[in-house]
Amino acid sequence: MPPRQPDLDPAAAYPRITGLRDALDSGDWPACRAVLDASAPVERTELTMVPFAEPGLETFLRGVLDGDPGDGAAAALLGRHLIGTAWRVPTGARAERGAPRRPAGRTDGLVTAERLLVDAAARSPRDPAIWTARLVTARGLRLGRSEAARRYRRLAEIDPHHLPAQWQYLQQLCPEPGGDWEPAHAFARETAEAAPPGSFGPVLVAEAHLEHWNREHHRQPGAGRRYLADDRVRAGLHEAARRSVWHADFRHTHGWVRVTSTFAMAFALLDDRPAADSLFTTLGDLGSDHPWYHLGDPGAVIVKYRKRVAGGGT
Known about the structure:
Number of strands: 0
Largest sheet: none
Shape: globular
Low-confidence stretches: 89-101
Strand content: under 5%
Distance between the termini: 17 Å
């Protein structure tokens, strides 16, 4: 039997997403707060990305903030919504990557989000969701690596292992927005080494290698494959996986599907079939569009690679 299409809806793995969606749809702010307040910091930050560009949400959230300007949860949700609307892309992973050209409407929307988030950070200076969103606007508005580093340091003082922010900062360090590979890989390695055993942080090693692979892949035919074939890259990926998804303390908390999917894609591209197959088995029917969208339609690509690593394809 051929592999089934994976369920890419994050709500399939994280039921609180459905609760937040329902509360937002019904305009029930106390119910929204109940979901967010019951969530751990990383989950709460991830949940603020759920209503990324829902129509009508801005009016609702501005009404909440008019009633309570210090409501950091509402500010974080509205900031992420404004970012998503500015990019006009419905999913967080694709919307936040930036673009070589910025239409005026996009810049105006990001400026609006930035102003809102500056005020929110002043009112709620220890809210990691707000600081994570400010890392997105820093990159989108090209405020520079120094400003991004300042924002990341502020966040790391609050939570030194906040993966959503670490992923955003890694993007800033990559060449596309003006960074370089050496600091990007160094940050990923340092984050992995500092992360608690069995945590999600080591996935940044795989994220950095996949970003590098993607750049080489589009630069020259075969260059991406040659990059991943380097023994140091392979060893680094295995070490990161041992610290994270293969560790006995790895837990299926919010974000585990994307973390596991990222390692699965890295090992699939390496043609390390046993490693990739073990991660696909862990995922079962679940999947994440990140990072598979680099290769096309995520669902179809995942099916293709599941079949390949299981021995049913080339």
